[in-house]
Amino acid sequence: MDTAPIVTIRALNHWFGDGAARKQALFDINLRLEPGSFTALVGPSGSGKTTLLTLIGCLRMVQDGSLRLLGQELHGASGAQLVAMRRRLGFIFQAHNLHESLTAGQNVMMGAQVDGGVRHDRATLAAHHLLGLVGLAGRVDYLPANLSGGQKQRVAVARALVGNPDLLLADEPTAALDRNSASDVVDLLRRIGSARGMTTLLVTHDTRILDRADRILTLEDGRIVGEEDRQGKG
Ligand SMILES: Nc1ncnc2c1ncn2[C@@H]1O[C@H](COP(=O)(O)OP(=O)(O)OP(=O)(O)O)[C@@H](O)[C@H]1O
C-alpha cells in the first residue's frame, strides 16, 4: 500500500480582496493527511476552515506556499490540472445539492460519470450498489422531494463516494440533520471510508463526528492552533 501522504501543505498563506481591502485568511498552514485517516477541522466562524478545504479541493488557486495533493503540486497548477485533480476527490456539503428533477439513482450516477467518465451500465451498477450501502436500496427511483433530510444527505454521501475518491472533503455534512440521521451519516462515512482506504477531511462542529475522528485540527484567525491525535480513542 502507498504510504505517501495524501495531502502535504507547507507554509500556505491565502488572501482575499485587493488593495486596501486585501485581507489575509490563512497564515503559515503546515499539515499532512495520511492515507486512510479521518480528520476533523474545527474552529470559530471566519477562522478559515472553508478556505482551507476549498484550496485542498482544487476549488481555489493556491497563492503562496506549497500544497501537494495526491503527489501533485497545486501551486502553479493550470485550471485544467485542477479540474483533473477534482475528479479524484469526493465532496459533501451541508446543503445536499441534489438535482431535484433527477431520481436518487440518477443523482448518484452524476457522481460516477462526472468523476470517473465510466460507462453508463457500470455507473448504474455502482450507483445502485452505493445506495444499497447507505440503506436506500428501495429509494433508487425516488425524487429528492420525496425523501427525508437524512435520506437526501445519504444520497449525497453515495454520490460523493461513487467515483471511488482518494480523498473525501466534507463541509458540515451533518449540520442540517437530526440526531439519528447525523449518526447514520457519520457511521457510513467511517465504515465505507475505512473499507476503501479513503482519506477524509471534514469541517464540523458536530460532537458525534469529533468523537469518531482520528485527529482534530483547530483553526483560529487563519492559523492552526491545536492538533489532537485521537487514534485508538474513537
Ligand atoms: N470570497 C471571499 N471574499 C472575501 N473574503 C472572504 C471570502 N471567503 C472568505 N472570506 C474571509 O476569509 C475568512 C475565512 O473565511 P472562511 O469561510 O474560510 O471561514 P470558516 O471558518 O469556514 O467560517 P464558517 O464556520 O462561518 O463557515 C473570513 O474572514 C471571511 O470573511
Could you give a quick summary of the protein structure above?
With 234 residues, the chain is of the alpha/beta class. The chain has helices at residues 49-56, 79-86, 104-116, 120-133, 149-161, 179-196, 207-210; strands at residues 7-16, 23-33, 38-42, 64-69, 72-73, 89-93, 167-171, 199-203, 215-220, 223-229. The model has no long low-confidence stretch (mean pLDDT 89).
Topology:
Blueprint: E1 7-16, E2 23-33, E3 38-42, H1 49-56, E4 64-69, E5 72-73, H2 79-86, E6 89-93, H3 104-116, H4 120-133, H5 149-161, E7 167-171, H6 179-196, E8 199-203, H7 207-210, E9 215-220, E10 223-229
This protein binds adenosine-5'-triphosphate.
Description:
This protein has seven helices and ten strands. With 234 residues, the protein is of the alpha/beta class. Strand 9 and strand 10 (223-229) form a beta hairpin. Helix 3 (104-116) crosses helix 4 (120-133). The longest helix is centred in the last third of the chain and has 18 residues, at 179-196. The protein is globular, with a radius of gyration of 18 Å. The site of adenosine-5'-triphosphate has 11 residues, from helix 1.
